[in-house]
């Protein structure tokens, strides 16, 4: 059964600055604790990641996944191509400029291949959405400061 979650955060940056941080796949494990490793397998002509292989650890389960990104001016989304513990994963960041800030909405839907108690799944999803928003915000601000 598929499970969905979403969360919003305001980041003091432009959509382009935020998308640049999302596109820096090599740095993702440094700000997202669920990521054990991440590597770009293929890129689009503009250099943005297309296919990425990553190892994720959440709720005591380690999974190796291949995902494919789709980039737009104010949005990035990704879809699961292959995994061992998930049947499906669709996620996205939708960016809405607001003056010198950007409202970022993160949406995710997953369908596990293995059964997991509801409370554990809910806690893992909450941790993932918090990292995807608050963790992203911290990383964007760190990059803007040149850190």
TrEMBL record:
InterPro entries with a match to the protein in the record: Polyketide_cyclase/dehydratase (IPR019587), START-like_dom_sf (IPR023393)
Pfam families: Polyketide_cyc2
Name of the protein: Cyclase
Organism: Mycobacterium aquaticum
């Amino acid at each position: 059964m598929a499970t969905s979650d979403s969360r919003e955060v305001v980041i003091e940056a432009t959509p382009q600055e935020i998308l640049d941080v999302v596109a820096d796949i090599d740095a993702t494990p440094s700000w997202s604790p669920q990521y054990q490793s991440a590597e770009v397998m293929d890129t689009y002509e503009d250099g943005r990641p297309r296919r990425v292989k990553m190892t994720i650890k959440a709720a005591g389960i380690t999974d190796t996944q291949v995902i494919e990104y789709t980039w737009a001016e104010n949005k990035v989304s990704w879809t699961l191509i292959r995994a061992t513990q998930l049947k499906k994963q669709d996620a996205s960041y939708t960016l809405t400029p607001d003056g010198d800030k950007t409202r970022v909405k993160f949406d995710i839907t997953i369908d596990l291949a293995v059964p997991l108690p509801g409370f554990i799944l809910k806690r893992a999803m909450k941790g993932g959405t918090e990292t995807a928003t608050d963790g992203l915000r911290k990383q964007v601000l760190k990059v803007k400061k040149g850190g």
